[in-house]
C-alpha cells in the first residue's frame, strides 16, 4: 500500500506530462532533423525558428488565454493581416512609426473587447462571433486597399533589419525579444495574478465561477481583449517581418495558432494548460516545416501529406505518453477518521509552470 | 556584412565543417564535379497552371546532371516562402528561384540572401523592393499586358462600334494577377465608350466559383450580357457551363475571353465555346536554367526576362492544340 | 447590535420560472446569532429562495433588507460584498483548480503584487484544520471525493462570511463525524453573532443545531417556528401538508428472499482501489454496504457495474460468469445502478424528464429498437406519478428540477429498466422526509416482488430498516457482515471501528 | 422546441423579402425544356452541398465535436470519383468515393473517440493531409469528365427540379429518420450533454462518436459528388475550400448549440439555405467583391443577435420600460 502511494505520488501531474512530452518530442524531432540533413544542426536554423515565428508565438499566447476560458478566437489571423494593412497605409501617408504602432494596438484592443462584449453580453458562441470578426477584419482591409503596400518607413526598416548577435555571427531579431517578453508576461500573469487564476477558474466551470463570486463577465471580455491585443502586437511584429501590408497575408493562420496551443498542452475544453505551451507548440510545427524544407524534393501534395503526417505522429506520441502516465486518476479521500498522509512529492504541479 | 559560414558559434555545429567553397564570389564557376544547387520556392499547387510551372522546373533541373534541385512548396503562404529561402541560405545553395505569392514583404529575406551572395531569380511574378539589386532577374509575363491584350482582342473580334456589356470574373481579391489583369483590361475598355463592364465579381480563380457567379449574373442581367472576361481559364470554363445551362451558346451568344492558355481552354476554343485565351506561359524552366548558367558564367542579365507568350483564338488555337503540354 | 436583532429580512418575495411558480410572497427573517433552518419538500423553493437572495436569479418582486437597509444583489459577487456567503446545493467549485485556490480564489493573498502561493497554501491548511481536514491543498480538487469537495466549499464560505452564512444541504454527502465538525464550526460562528441559514432534509440535524425553522410548501410560506416548540411530527405535517403518521416510516417486517443467487462476486479486486471483496445477493434480498466515507463502497459498486474494470475475480450473474463488465452489458444482464454523484454521473441536464427516464431502458433495448414516443410518455408518466416527481410537465428539462426531484428521476430511470439487481448508491441523498419514506417503501415493495437490491447509504438507520444483511467495508476492504437482529447502529459502528468480525476470512494485506 | 427554428426562418424570409424589392426578377420562375428555372431553384441547387455537409456537421456538433476536415474530404471524394470514371463503371466510381468518405470519417472518429484527441486538432490533421491526398490523386491538375450520367448528379433535372435537391432531401430525411425513429437522436443528445451520465446509463459514447464522424465523412463525400459533378471536374486544390466554416455557420444559425446537446436538422437546412441566399444575393446585387466579407460578417452578427435570448430580453425590457414610463 505504501509503495503504491509513493509511486502515485511521484507521478508527474497530468498537465506536466503534456509539456514534458512536447519537449521530449521536440528534442526527438530536432535530433532526427540534425541527423538526416546537413546544415540542420546550427544555431541559425534554431534561431530562425523563433525569427520566423515570432508573430505566431505572440498570437498563440494571446489566444491561449481565450482557450483556457473555454472560448476560441478565430479572428486572430485576419486581425494580423488587417493590422499589417493599416500600418502600411498609415506609414505610407507619412505618419510617425510609433504613433502607428500605438494606433494598431488600440485597434486590436478595441476589436478584441468588442468581440468579448458580444460573446459575454448576449451569450453568443465565440465561434460565431469571432468567425464574423474574421470576415470583418479581412473585409475591412479590402476597404483600405486590395493591393499590397510596401513599407519604406525608416524606423520600421531599421527595426526589421536590426540583428541581435548571439553565439558568433548568428542572430535573432527584435521581434524574437518581443515574443519572448510576451510569453514571460503571460506565464507570470497566469500564475501570479488573480486574473490569471480566474481565467483558469472560468475555464473549469463558468457557472461555478459565477457562484463563487468571480467577475466572470469582466474576465470574459478581458481575455478576448488580450487576444485582440496580442493579435495586434503580432500584427506589428509581422509587419516588421514582412515590411508590407497585405490583406491576403496569413490566410488560415488561426488554425496554426490553435494547433500550437493544443500541441503545447492547452485543452480546448478549457481550464488546463501552461502558458509556455503555445511557444512549444509553435516551435514544434516550425521544426516539422523546417524538416520538410530541408528534405527538398517533396512535391506540393507530398509536402501537405508529410506535414500532416508528422503532426499526426507528434499528437499520437503525445497521447500515448499521456495515456500511459495518466492511468486512472486517484481519488484521494481525506476524512476525519483516517487522515491521509500528506504527499509532499506533488510540488511539481506548481513549481513547474 | 559578415558571411554566414564564418567563425564563432557556427563552428560548433557539425554541419558547417568543410565543403564551404562558395563563400567566394559567386561568379567563379563551380568545381567540375560539384553540382549547382538550386533552391526553388514555389507558391503551391493551387492551379493546373502552377503545376505546369513546377513540372517544367522539375523536368529541366531534375534531368540535368549539372544541377541539383531543392524544391519547397509554400502552400500559398508567404511566411513559408520566407522560411524556405532562409532554409536555402542555411543550406548554402548556389541560386534561389522564387515564385513570390505576393509582391511585397521580401526586403529582409532577400537582403539576407544577398549578404550570403546567393543570386535570386523571380519567376512569373515580381516583387516590390526599394533596392532592385536584391534580385538578379525576373522571368515572367506582364499581367497588365495580358489584360490589355484580352481587351484588345475582344474589341477587334466584336467590332469597336458595337454596344457590348461585359461581365468580369475576377481572380482572388487582392491577388496581383487579379489586380493587374483587371487594370490592363479596364484601361483599354474605358477608352472605348461602346464597351462597358456592367458587373464584376470575384470567382476566386476556380471553376466552381466561376460558374456560380456567372449563374447569378445571368439571372440578374440575362440577355444583357454580350461578353465575359475571366481572369483565368478555369473561371471561364465554369462560366461556359453556366451559360450553356442558362440556355445560351457560349462563344456565339456571349463572347468569352480569358487568360492563361491551359489545354482545356484550347479545347474549348476548338469546340467553339471559348473565343480567346491570352497565354501566360508557365514553362519557365529552360529560361531559368539559361539565366543561371549565364549568371555563373559572369554575364550580366536583363532585369526582366520576358517569357514567350501569345494570344490564341480561332484556327490558330486549334493548330496549337496538339502541342500544348499543360 | 445584539444577538437576536433582525439581520436579514426578505419581504413578499416572488419568483416564477417558465411553467413554475417557485416562490410566491415569501417572507423570511434571519436574526443575529441564530441558526435558522429552511425546510420544505423537494421542490418547495428553498434553493430558489437562496438563489434570488444572492443574485443568481433576479427576483420578480419583493424586498430584501440587510441590517435594516434595503439591498439588491445582482450577482453572487455583489452578495459577497454585502457579507452574504453561500454554499449552494450543487457544489460549485472549480475542480480543475487546486484545493487552496478554490478556497481563496477571488481574494488570493498577494505579496508585492504577485500571488503569494506559500502563504495561500499555509493559510489553506490552517483553514481546513478548523474543519479537521488534513488535505494536500496543492492537489487539484478533482482528486478528492464529493464529500471532501463539500467540506472545501463549506470552508470557503465559512472563511468569507461576515454576517450571513447560507448552507444549502451541506450535509447531504457528509458522514456523522464530518457533520459534527461542521456543527462545531457553526456553533462557534453563531456565538460570534453570525446569522446562519441551514437547509437540510435530516430532521435530527435540524433539532440538533437550529434555533428557528421556516417552512415552505409549494413556493409559499407556511410559517416560522421556534425549533424547541415544534414537534417532529408537526414539522413534517407542515412540510408535506397532510397528517404524518408513524406508519409512513416503513420498516422491514419480514424477509422475502429466496435461495436463488442473482449475483455473486468472487474476490473482485482492483489495484489501488479495492481489495478482494466477495459478495452474493439472493433474489429478493436487500443487502446493505456500510462503511465510512472512502471505505470503498462506491468503488465496489463501480466494479460490479463495469464502470471500472476489476483486475481479478469473477462475477456470476444467473448462470453466466463474467471476467469483465461494462455498463451496457450490465444493464442487459439486469443490473441497474443509481450512482451517488447526481450532477456528474446521473442527470443529463439538457434533456427532458421523459428522455432522462427512458435513457437506460433505451440503451438496454439497443439503438434501433426505438421506444415509440407514446410508450415513452406512458413510462415517464407512470414514474412521475409513482415517485411523485414534482414538475409542471414531463417535457421539462431535468436541470430545472429541484435537487431531490432530479434524484427521483434517476431512480425512475433504473426502475424503468426492470432490473433483477438494483444498486443504489445514496438513493435518498437530498430527498425530503416524505419522499424518503416512500422510497423506502418502494425498495421494500420491489424486494418483495423479487428484485434484489444492493444499497449504499450513509444513513445507517435507513439501511438497517430495509436491509436483510449488511456488509461492512473499511479501508477499502471487506471486514465483516451482520444480519438479522444483530443489525443495529452500535454493532455496525463497532465493526467499522474495530474491523473485527470475520477479518480472518479476508486477511489484511499490506500495512 | 420548435420556437428555435423561428429565427433562422425569419432571417431567411428577410433576405428573400430583400430580394423581392431590390433584385428584379428574383422570384421569377419559368418552365424551360420541362424543368423549373429561376433564382430560387438556383439557390436550392447551390445550397445542396452545404446542406448535406451541414447535416453531417450537425450530428458532430451535437456531440460537442467539430469536423474541419469536411472540405478536404469533399475534395478527395470528387477526385476519386472523377479519376475512376471511365476506368470502372460509374456506380463503382461513386461507390468508391462514398467509401473513401466513410473511411475518412472513420479515421477522424478513431482519433477522437478512441485516442482521445481533441476534435478540432484531430480533424485538422485530415484537413491538411486530405487536400494533399486529393492533389495526389489528381496530380495537381483539374480532372474533367464528360460523362453525362455523372453530370446528372449535380446538374441534372428530375421531375422538373434539380436532382441535387433530391439528394439533399434524401440525406435530410434519412438522418431525420435516424433521429426520430431510432434512438440515435436521444443517445447523441445525451452524450453531447453529459458524457459521463450517458455512459452510466449504458450508452456507449465512443461508438456514437465513431458513427457520427463516419456519417459526417459520408456527407462530405456526397457533397463532393455534387460539387464535382456540377462542374464535371475535380479541382483538388479549391473544391470545398472554407466550406467547413459555412457549414458550421449553417448549423449554428439553425439553432444547434456548439456546446453540444440538442440539435435541429430542419434548422440546419434553413441555415444553409439562408447562407446560400445571402451569397447569391450578394452576387446578383453587384456588391463589389471586396465588400462581401464585411456584408457577411454584419449579417452573421445580426442573425445571431436575433437568436440570442439576452438580446431579445434587452428589447423587451426596453419596451416594457417605455410602456411604463
Ligand atoms: N432554473 C429553473 N428553471 C425552471 N424551473 C426551476 C428552475 N430552478 C428551480 N425550478 C423549479 O422551482 C421549484 C423550486 O425548486 P428549488 O430548487 O427551489 O426546490 P428546493 O426546495 O430546493 O428542493 P430540494 O429539496 O429538492 O433541493 C421546482 O419546482 C423546480 O422545478
Ligand atoms: N485509483 C485509485 N487509487 C487509489 N485509491 C483510490 C483509487 N480510486 C479510489 N481510491 C480510494 O478508494 C476509496 C473508496 O472510495 P469510494 O468513493 O468507493 O468510497 P465510498 O465508501 O463510496 O465513500 P462515499 O460515501 O464518499 O461514496 C477512497 O478512499 C479513494 O480515495
Ligand atoms: Mg434545493
Ligand atoms: Mg460512495
UniProtKB/TrEMBL annotation, chain A:
It holds the Pfam family BPD_transp_2. CDD domains: TM_PBP1_transp_AraH_like (cd06579). It is a multi-pass membrane protein. One of its GO terms (cellular component) is plasma membrane. Coiled coil: none annotated. Keywords: Cell membrane, Membrane, Transmembrane, Transmembrane helix. InterPro entries: ABC_transp_permease (IPR001851). It is found in: Cell membrane. GO terms for molecular function: transmembrane transporter activity. The chain crosses the membrane at residues 20-43, 55-86, 98-118, 124-145, 166-190, 221-243, 255-288, 300-322. It comes from the Bacteria. This is Sugar ABC transporter permease YjfF.
From TrEMBL, chain C:
InterPro entries: AAA+_ATPase, ABC_carbohydrate_import_ATPase, ABC_transporter-like_ATP-bd, ABC_transporter-like_CS, P-loop_NTPase. It is a peripheral membrane protein. GO terms for cellular component: plasma membrane. The keyword Glycoprotein does not apply. Keywords: ATP-binding, Cell membrane, Membrane, Nucleotide-binding, Repeat, Translocase, Transport. It is found in: Cell membrane. PROSITE patterns: ABC_TRANSPORTER_1, ABC_TRANSPORTER_2. It comes from Cohnella fermenti. It holds the Pfam family ABC_tran. PANTHER family: CARBOHYDRATE TRANSPORT ATP-BINDING PROTEIN MG119-RELATED, GALACTOFURANOSE TRANSPORTER ATP-BINDING PROTEIN YTFR. Residues 8-243, 256-500 form the ABC transporter domain. Gene3D superfamilies: P-loop containing nucleotide triphosphate hydrolases (3.40.50.300). The keyword Amino-acid biosynthesis does not apply. This is Sugar ABC transporter ATP-binding protein. GO terms for molecular function: ATP binding; ATP hydrolysis activity.
UniProtKB/TrEMBL annotation, chain D:
GO terms for cellular component: plasma membrane. One of its GO terms (molecular function) is transmembrane transporter activity. It is a multi-pass membrane protein. The chain crosses the membrane at residues 6-31, 43-62, 68-91, 98-117, 157-178, 208-227, 239-256, 263-286, 292-311. Keywords: Cell membrane, Membrane, Transmembrane, Transmembrane helix. Pfam families: BPD_transp_2 (PF02653). PANTHER family: ABC TRANSPORTER PERMEASE PROTEIN YPHD-RELATED-RELATED (PTHR32196), GALACTOFURANOSE TRANSPORTER PERMEASE PROTEIN YTFT (PTHR32196:SF19). This is ABC transporter permease.
Amino acid at each position: 500500500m505504501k509503495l503504491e502511494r509513493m509511486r502515485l505520488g511521484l507521478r508527474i501531474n497530468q498537465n506536466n506530462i503534456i509539456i514534458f512530452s512536447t519537449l521530449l518530442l521536440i528534442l526527438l524531432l530536432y535530433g532526427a532533423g540534425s541527423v538526416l540533413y546537413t546544415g540542420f544542426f546550427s544555431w541559425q536554423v534554431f534561431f530562425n525558428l523563433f525569427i520566423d515565428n515570432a508573430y505566431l508565438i505572440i498570437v498563440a499566447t494571446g489566444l491561449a488565454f481565450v482557450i483556457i476560458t473555454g472560448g476560441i478566437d478565430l479572428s486572430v489571423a485576419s486581425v494580423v493581416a488587417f493590422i499589417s494593412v493599416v500600418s502600411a497605409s498609415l506609414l505610407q501617408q507619412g505618419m510617425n512609426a510609433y504613433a502607428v504602432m500605438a494606433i494598431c494596438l488600440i485597434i486590436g484592443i478595441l476589436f478584441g473587447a468588442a468581440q468579448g462584449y458580444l460573446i459575454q453580453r448576449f451569450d453568443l458562441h465565440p465561434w460565431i462571433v469571432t468567425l464574423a470578426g474574421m470576415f470583418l477584419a479581412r473585409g475591412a482591409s479590402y476597404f483600405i486597399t486590395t493591393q499590397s503596400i510596401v513599407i519604406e518607413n525608416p524606423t520600421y526598416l531599421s527595426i526589421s533589419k536590426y540583428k541581435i548577435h548571439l553565439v558568433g555571427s548568428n542572430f535573432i531579431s527584435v521581434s524574437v525579444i518581443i515574443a519572448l517578453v510576451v510569453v514571460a508576461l503571460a506565464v507570470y500573469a497566469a500564475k501570479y495574478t488573480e486574473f490569471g487564476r480566474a481565467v483558469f477558474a472560468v475555464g473549469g466551470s463558468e457557472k461555478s465561477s459565477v457562484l463563487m463570486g468571480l467577475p466572470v463577465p469582466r474576465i470574459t471580455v478581458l481575455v478576448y481583449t488580450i487576444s485582440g491585443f496580442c493579435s495586434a502586437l503580432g500584427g506589428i511584429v509581422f509587419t516588421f517581418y514582412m515590411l508590407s501590408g497585405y490583406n491576403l497575408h496569413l490566410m488560415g493562420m488561426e488554425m496554426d495558432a490553435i494547433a500550437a496551443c493544443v500541441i503545447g498542452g492547452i485543452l480546448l475544453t478549457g481550464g488546463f494548460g501552461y502558458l509556455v505551451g503555445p511557444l512549444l507548440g509553435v516551435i514544434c510545427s516550425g521544426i516539422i516545416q523546417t524538416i520538410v524544407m530541408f528534405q527538398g524534393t517533396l512535391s506540393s501534395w507530398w509536402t501537405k501529406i508529410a506535414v500532416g503526417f508528422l503532426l499526426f505522429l507528434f499528437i499520437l506520441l503525445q497521447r500515448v505518453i499521456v495515456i500511459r502516465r495518466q492511468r486512472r486518476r486517484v481519488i484521494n479521500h481525506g476524512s476525519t477518521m483516517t487522515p491521509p498522509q500528506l504527499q509532499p512529492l506533488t510540488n511539481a504541479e506548481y513549481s513547474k509552470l | 556584412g559578415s558571411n554566414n559560414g564564418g567563425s564563432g558559434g557556427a563552428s560548433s555545429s557539425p554541419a558547417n565543417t568543410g565543403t564551404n567553397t562558395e563563400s567566394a564570389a559567386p561568379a567563379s564557376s563551380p568545381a567540375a564535379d560539384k553540382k549547382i544547387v538550386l533552391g526553388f520556392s514555389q507558391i503551391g499547387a493551387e492551379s493546373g497552371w502552377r503545376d505546369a510551372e513546377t513540372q517544367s522546373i522539375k523536368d529541366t533541373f531534375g534531368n540535368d546532371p549539372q544541377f541539383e534541385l531543392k524544391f519547397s512548396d509554400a502552400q500559398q503562404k508567404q511566411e513559408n516562402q520566407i522560411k524556405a529561402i532562409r532554409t536555402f541560405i542555411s543550406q548554402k545553395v548556389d541560386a534561389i528561384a522564387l515564385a513570390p505569392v505576393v509582391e511585397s514583404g521580401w526586403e529582409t529575406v532577400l537582403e539576407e540572401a544577398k549578404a550570403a551572395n546567393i543570386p535570386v531569380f523571380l519567376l512569373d511574378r515580381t516583387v516590390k523592393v526599394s533596392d532592385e539589386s536584391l534580385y538578379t532577374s525576373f522571368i515572367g509575363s506582364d499581367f497588365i499586358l495580358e489584360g490589355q491584350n484580352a481587351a484588345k482582342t475582344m474589341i477587334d473580334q466584336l467590332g469597336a462600334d458595337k454596344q457590348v456589356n461585359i461581365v468580369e470574373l475576377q481572380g482572388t481579391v487582392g491577388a496581383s494577377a487579379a489586380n493587374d489583369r483587371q487594370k490592363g483590361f479596364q484601361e483599354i475598355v474605358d477608352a472605348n465608350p461602346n464597351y462597358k463592364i456592367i458587373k464584376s465579381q470575384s470567382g476566386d480563380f476556380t471553376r466552381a466559383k466561376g460558374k456560380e457567379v456567372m449563374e447569378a449574373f445571368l439571372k440578374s442581367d440575362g440577355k444583357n450580357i454580350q461578353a465575359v472576361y475571366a481572369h483565368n481559364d478555369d473561371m471561364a470554363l465554369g462560366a461556359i457551363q453556366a451559360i450553356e445551362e442558362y440556355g445560351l451558346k457560349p462563344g456565339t451568344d456571349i463572347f468569352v475571353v480569358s487568360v492563361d492558355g491551359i489545354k482545356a481552354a484550347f479545347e474549348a476554343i476548338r469546340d467553339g465555346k471559348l473565343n480567346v485565351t491570352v497565354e501566360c506561359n508557365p514553362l519557365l524552366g529552360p529560361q531559368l536554367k539559361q539565366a543561371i548558367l549565364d549568371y555563373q558564367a559572369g554575364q550580366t542579365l536583363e532585369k526582366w526576362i520576358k517569357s514567350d507568350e501569345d494570344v490564341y483564338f480561332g484556327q490558330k488555337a486549334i493548330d496549337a492544340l496538339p502541342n500544348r503540354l499543360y | 447590535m445584539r444577538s437576536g436583532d433582525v439581520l436579514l429580512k426578505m419581504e413578499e418575495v416572488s419568483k416564477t420560472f417558465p411553467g413554475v411558480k417557485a416562490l410566491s410572497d415569501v417572507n423570511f427573517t434571519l436574526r443575529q446569532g441564530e441558526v435558522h433552518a429552511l425546510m420544505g419538500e423537494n421542490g418547495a423553493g428553498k434553493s430558489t429562495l437562496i438563489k434570488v437572495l444572492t443574485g443568481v436569479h433576479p427576483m420578480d418582486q419583493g424586498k430584501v433588507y440587510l441590517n435594516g437597509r434595503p439591498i439588491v444583489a445582482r450577482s453572487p459577487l455583489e452578495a459577497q460584498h454585502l457579507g452574504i456567503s453561500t454554499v449552494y446545493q450543487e457544489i460549485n467549485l472549480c475542480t480543475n483548480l487546486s484545493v487552496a485556490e478554490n478556497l481563496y480564489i477571488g481574494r488570493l493573498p498577494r505579496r508585492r503584487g504577485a500571488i503569494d502561493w506559500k502563504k495561500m497554501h499555509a493559510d489553506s491548511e490552517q483553514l481546513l484544520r478548523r474543519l479537521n481536514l488534513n488535505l494536500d491543498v496543492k492537489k487539484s480538487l478533482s482528486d478528492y471525493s464529493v464529500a471532501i469537495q463539500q467540506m472545501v466549499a463549506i470552508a470557503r464560505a465559512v472563511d468569507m462570511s461576515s454576517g450571513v452564512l447560507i448552507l444549502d444541504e451541506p450535509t447531504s454527502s457528509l458522514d456523522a463525524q464530518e457533520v459534527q465538525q461542521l456543527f462545531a464550526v457553526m456553533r462557534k460562528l453563531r456565538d460570534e453573532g453570525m446569522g446562519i441559514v441551514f437547509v437540510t432534509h435530516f430532521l435530527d440535524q435540524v433539532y440538533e443545531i437550529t434555533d428557528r425553522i421556516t417552512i415552505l410548501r409549494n413556493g409559499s410560506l407556511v410559517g416560522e417556528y421556534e425549533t424547541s416548540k415544534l414537534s417532529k411530527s408537526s414539522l413534517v405535517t407542515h412540510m408535506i401538508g397532510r397528517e404524518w403518521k408513524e406508519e409512513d416510516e416503513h420498516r422491514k417486517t419480514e424477509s422475502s428472499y429466496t435461495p436463488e443467487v442473482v449475483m455473486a462476486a468472487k474476490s473482485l479486486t482492483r489495484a489501488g482501489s479495492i481489495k478482494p471483496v466477495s459478495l452474493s445477493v439472493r433474489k429478493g434480498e436487500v443487502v446493505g454496504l456500510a462503511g465510512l466515507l472512502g471505505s470503498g463502497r462506491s468503488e465496489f459498486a463501480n466494479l460490479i457495474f463495469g464502470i471500472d474494470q476489476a483486475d481479478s475475480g469473477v462475477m456470476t450473474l444467473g448462470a453466466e460468469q463474467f471476467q469483465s463488465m461494462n455498463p451496457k452489458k450490465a444493464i442487459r444482464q439486469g443490473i441497474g445502478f443509481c450512482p451517488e454523484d447526481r450532477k456528474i454521473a446521473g442527470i443529463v441536464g439538457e434533456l427532458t424528464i421523459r428522455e432522462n427516464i427512458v435513457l437506460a431502458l433505451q440503451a438496454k433495448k439497443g439503438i434501433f429498437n426505438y421506444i415509440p414516443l407514446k410508450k415513452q410518455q406512458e413510462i415517464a408518466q407512470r414514474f412521475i406519478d409513482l415517485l411523485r416527481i414534482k414538475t409542471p410537465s414531463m417535457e421539462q428539462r431535468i436541470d430545472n428540477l429541484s435537487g431531490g426531484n432530479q434524484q427521483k428521476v434517476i431512480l425512475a430511470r433504473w426502475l424503468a429498466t426492470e432490473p433483477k439487481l438494483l444498486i443504489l448508491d445514496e438513493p435518498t441523498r437530498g430527498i425530503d422526509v416524505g419522499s424518503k419514506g416512500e422510497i423506502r417503501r418502494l425498495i421494500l415493495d420491489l424486494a418483495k416482488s423479487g428484485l434484489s437490491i444492493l444499497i449504499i447509504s450513509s444513513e445507517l438507520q435507513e439501511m438497517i430498516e430495509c436491509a436483510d444483511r449488511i456488509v461492512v467495508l473499511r479501508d477499502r476492504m471487506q471486514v465483516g457482515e451482520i444480519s438479522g437482529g444483530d443489525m443495529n447502529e452500535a454493532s455496525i459502528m463497532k465493526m467499522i471501528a474495530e474491523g473485527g468480525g470475520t477479518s480472518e476470512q479476508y486477511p489484511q494485506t499490506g500495512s | 422546441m420548435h420556437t428555435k427554428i423561428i429565427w433562422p426562418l425569419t432571417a431567411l424570409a428577410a433576405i428573400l423579402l430583400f430580394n423581392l424589392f431590390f433584385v428584379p426578377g428574383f422570384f421569377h420562375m419559368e418552365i424551360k425544356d420541362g424543368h423549373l428555372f429561376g433564382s430560387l431553384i438556383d439557390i436550392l441547387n447551390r445550397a445542396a452541398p452545404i446542406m448535406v455537409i451541414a447535416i453531417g456537421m450537425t450530428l458532430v456538433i451535437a456531440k460537442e465535436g467539430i469536423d474541419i476536415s469536411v472540405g478536404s474530404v469533399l475534395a478527395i471524394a470528387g477526385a476519386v470519383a472523377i479519376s475512376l470514371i471511365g476506368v470502372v463503371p460509374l456506380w463503382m466510381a461513386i461507390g468508391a468515393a462514398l467509401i473513401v468518405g466513410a473511411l475518412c470519417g472513420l479515421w477522424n472518429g478513431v482519433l477522437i473517440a478512441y485516442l482521445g484527441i481533441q476534435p478540432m486538432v484531430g480533424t485538422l490533421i485530415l484537413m491538411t493531409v486530405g487536400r494533399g491526398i486529393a492533389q495526389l490523386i489528381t496530380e495537381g491538375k483539374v480532372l474533367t469528365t464528360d460523362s453525362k450520367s455523372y453530370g446528372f448528379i449535380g446538374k441534372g433535372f428530375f421531375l422538373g427540379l434539380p436532382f441535387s435537391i433530391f439528394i439533399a432531401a434524401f440525406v435530410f430525411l434519412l438522418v431525420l429518420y435516424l433521429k426520430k425513429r431510432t434512438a440515435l437522436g436521444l443517445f447523441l443528445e445525451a452524450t453531447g450533454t453529459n458524457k459521463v451520465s450517458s455512459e452510466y446509463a449504458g450508452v456507449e459514447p465512443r461508438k456514437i462518436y465513431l458513427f457520427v464522424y463516419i456519417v459526417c465523412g459520408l456527407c462530405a463525400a456526397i457533397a463532393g459528388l455534387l460539387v464535382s459533378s456540377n462542374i464535371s471536374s475535380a479541382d483538388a486544390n479549391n473544391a470545398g475550400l472554407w466550406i467547413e466554416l459555412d457549414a458550421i455557420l449553417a448549423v449554428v444559425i439553425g439553432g444547434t448549440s456548439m456546446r453540444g446537446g440538442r440539435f435541429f436538422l430542419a434548422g440546419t437546412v434553413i441555415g444553409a439555405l439562408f447562407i446560400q441566399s445571402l451569397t447569391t444575393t450578394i452576387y446578383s446585387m453587384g456588391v463589389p467583391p471586396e465588400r462581401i466579407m464585411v456584408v457577411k460578417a454584419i449579417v452573421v452578427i445580426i442573425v445571431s443577435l436575433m437568436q440570442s435570448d439576452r438580446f431579445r430580453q434587452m428589447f423587451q425590457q426596453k419596451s416594457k420600460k417605455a410602456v411604463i414610463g
